[in-house]
Amino acid sequence: MRKLLTVLAIGILGVSLFSPAYAITKVPAGNRSASQPKIPSGSISRTRSTNGSFQAKYEKIRDLIKTNKKLQSGIKKAARQYGIKPIHIVGALVGEHTYNVDATDTLQTYVIKAISYFKEDIDFSHNKESVTKFVKRPQFSKCETLKNSYDLWSCRENVWKAKFQGKSVDGKSWPNDRFGRVFFQPFYAGQTFGLGQINPLTALQVTDLVAQKSKKKKLSANKANEVYKTIINPDTTLIYMAAIIRTSIDSYKKIAGYDISDNPGITATLYNLGDVKTRARRAKSSGSLPKENYYGWLVNDKQSELEAILK
Asked: 19: pLDDT confidence band, cut at 50, 70 and 90?
């Protein structure tokens, strides 16, 4: 009996030591807001400038996914590799092409763009200072111990915000703008690229996960053209989209104790907003269920229709 009680005590102690300090809360499907949150003025003005409408843009990307079997196959393959439901990738595509850009009529257009970018002599820099040289400054020293690409680039982004953004450092004034916009926009053509509208900085953050899951070569900030080619090419952009979404799901579960894997509107919202780990920490502090923004609200509202086109 004593031996049995000892074994039970050790087992209970083990559970208390190695189990999460909180229970995982499943975030249900569907929207928490009864009506769509306010759409940003920038999205409205971009759509008006082309004499378009959000409904028309939604139908265009929906129909592209519905009619292009190669795209459907790529979505499903990427979803399997990263252990997520295909609707999460579809939701991100729909959100981006409804509110940010118009869907290109054919995937071949993206392939042509990818090839042209790969041939360009480009780099990630600001005022002729490369980002790889910039992050060697002493302000970034605390980041160098981080080995994971997501943590490393997130740390560098946070240092930029705290130490450089909108400030004068070493006699030089730095723009009051995001790290990704200042150093990763050599074409001044917007922040995101390709079918998945991925920011180069975001791609660099998840490149370790892609290398692990998809056995792809890691991206490097020293080779900007390869980064652009990767995020513009339809085959690889879907993989990176899946990696970004997987990171969001894992971060919310590990940091905040929320399982968002059944709510594509939440993952679409995070795909739109970025800075996932910071948002997960805020969600943990607030103690309230994650809430969709205007972009994710549409995805949840159209979920049944979007899931049907993949069957």
From this structure: very low
Q: Give a yes or no: residue 213 inside a domain.
A: no
Domain span including residue 110? 21-122+239-308
- Residue 137 located in a structural domain: no
Q: What is the DSSP string of the chain?
A: -HHHHHHHHHHHHHHHHHS-SSPPEEPPSS-SSSSPPPPPHHHHHHHHHTT--HHHHHHHHHHHHHH-HHHHHHHHHHHHHTT--HHHHHHHHHHHHHHT-PPPS-HHHHHHHHHHHHHS----EETTEEHHHHTTSGGGGGGGG--SHHHHHHHHHHHIIIIITT-EETTEE--SS-HHHHHS-TT-S-S-BTTTTB-HHHHHHTHHHHHHHH-PPPP-TT-HHHHHHHHHSHHHHHHHHHHHHHHHHHHIIIII-EE-TT-HHHHHHHHHH--HHHHHHHHHHH-S-----HHHHHHHHTHHHHHHTT-
What is the per-residue pLDDT for 15? 41
How many structural domains comprise the chain? Answer: 1
**pLDDT tens readout for residues 225-236:** 888 888 888 889
Q: What is the pLDDT of residues 68-126, one digit of tens each?
A: 999 999 999 999 999 999 999 999 999 999 998 765 545 556 555 555 555 567 789 99
